[in-house]
Design brief:
Strand content: under 5%
Mean pLDDT: 90
Shape: globular
Number of strands: 0
Oligomer: single chain
Low-confidence stretches: none
Structural class: mainly alpha
Radius of gyration: 17 Å
Distance between the termini: 15 Å
Order of helices and strands: HHHHHHH
Helix content: over 70%
Number of helices: 7
Largest sheet: none
Amino acid sequence: MYSLLKNIISHTELHAKWLNTLSFMENAGARKISASEHASEVSLIQLKHAAEEHRHAYYLKKQIGKLSPDLCKSYENNELLAARATRQYLHALDVKTCRYLRNHYRPSPDELKYAAYLFVTYAIEVRADRLYPVYQDILTEAGSKIMVKSIILEEEGHLEEMISQLYEFSSNWQDHANCIVNIEEELYYEWLNSISNEIRHHDYV
């Protein structure tokens, strides 16, 4: 990941697409959180989390302007890195998590929706806790105007909140969470490989 990100930030267009890709994924995550809400029983943490993920999407999108005001105006495929894999990543994690939970919890539809929110979001926060600090280190080394330090702090808080919610949900949540994290890791490396292959195909070296 380190060498891939170093290559990405050394090309303005690639870097803009990377920021746009992260923005797309943060926005997709926020929308999934909102979609998982119960019709009436919505916690303050859920509302806060969805709002902050939307803000991250906005913040990352706004950072693109520091590279060029003309790049990545939308989430069209040609303005994302590995667009197909990017669009499938969170959806695939959601589907596979629901399948896992059906096999181990046999929840009601409402329970499944909430459980999937907890475990999918936990896995994504674990990933964010690993990815954003590496990205920030590379930005700092390069003397870039782009910063993601504020996102790092909020994602750390999100992870703590998800752990607290998972403890309330199940006493043995961690065993199941580890399985979901393994599912996410496989999807994550497929996504990174898709990005790497696309970059090689377009001769960004």
